[in-house]
Write a structure and sequence with these properties.
CATH topology: Spore Coat Polysaccharide Biosynthesis Protein SpsA, Chain A
Distance between the termini: 32 Å
CATH superfamily: Spore Coat Polysaccharide Biosynthesis Protein SpsA, Chain A
Largest sheet: 8 strands, mixed
CATH architecture: Alpha-Beta Complex
Oligomer: single chain
Helix content: 25-40%
Shape: globular
Strand content: 15-25%
Order of helices and strands: EHEHEHEEHEHEHHEHHH
Radius of gyration: 17 Å
CATH class: Alpha Beta
Length: about 240
């Protein structure tokens, strides 16, 4: 079984379109469960989620990474798949991930992000986002050849036992996807599959500004990956984007 873990906080405008996408998955509904881990939302997020999810729990651990860890701890599946409440997974998302775990050596699978949520944007701005995400996806492919994987929480799958063994995600404002890769690397094989895709909302990036986002992410990824440090700037992760 697959357990899909989705952290939420005041996502009443987005959670339903995310959860409805699971009705279109190419594997049977009984082959996966949906776990919502809510961070004390003050809107109708949990009320909406209860119409679709198998489990809706309140978060007890700190941060978005902690929410994913809370979900993994109560999961029934051997595979943990994570995404965000404002993402929309492609129909074959779970099937692609599941097939890779037929290899017992695989501990993590990740894929590509396609940007969306362009409402109110000028046409040239949408082109910029598509171009930059296209470059980012290409770089993921290049890095994977060298054995480096960017395990984005919006689009990654893990062997549950291994995920729990290493302690799951750490509570970091940025670059937790790189930090967890470093701990998973000795545990087994990781896979990048371009068919494993989600539509990724750019609403957070738009509020922060694209160029500030690029600078902040690049800087913190460098600190985490190259300098073996921890990112300190939490502006992106802690804002209210509802």
């Amino acid at each position: 079984m697959i357990s899909v873990v989705i952290p939420t906080y005041n996502e009443e405008k987005n959670i339903e379109r995310c959860l409805k996408a699971f009705e279109e998955q190419t594997i049977p509904r009984e082959d996966f469960e949906i776990i919502i881990v809510d961070g004390q939302s003050s809107d109708r997020t949990t009320e909406i989620a209860e119409n679709y999810a198998d489990k809706v729990i309140q978060q007890v651990s700190k941060g978005v990474g902690g929410a994913r860890n809370d979900g993994a701890k109560i999961a029934n599946g051997e595979i943990i798949v994570t995404t965000d409440a404002d993402c929309i997974p492609y129909a074959e998302w779970l099937e692609v991930a599941q097939k890779h775990f037929e290899d017992d050596n695989v501990v993590a699978v990740t894929g590509f992000l396609d940007p969306f949520d362009y409402e109110g944007m000028r046409k040239y701005e949408t082109y910029i986002y598509r171009l930059l995400f296209g470059i980012s996806n290409h770089m993921l492919r290049v890095f994977s050849v060298t054995g480096y994987y960017h395990l984005c929480g919006a689009n990654s799958a893990f062997d549950r036992d291994t995920f729990l063994e290493i302690g799951g995600y750490q509570d970091l404002p940025y670059s937790d996807d790189i930090e967890i890769y470093k701990r998973l690397k000795p545990m087994g094989k990781m896979v990048l599959d371009k068919r494993m895709k989600v539509n990724y909302s750019v609403r957070r990036i738009r509020k922060m500004s694209l160029w500030t986002y690029i600078y902040t992410i690049t800087r913190n990824d460098f600190v985490t990956m190259i300098m073996n440090g921890k990112p300190t700037d939490d502006g992106y992760a802690r804002q209210d984007y509802s």
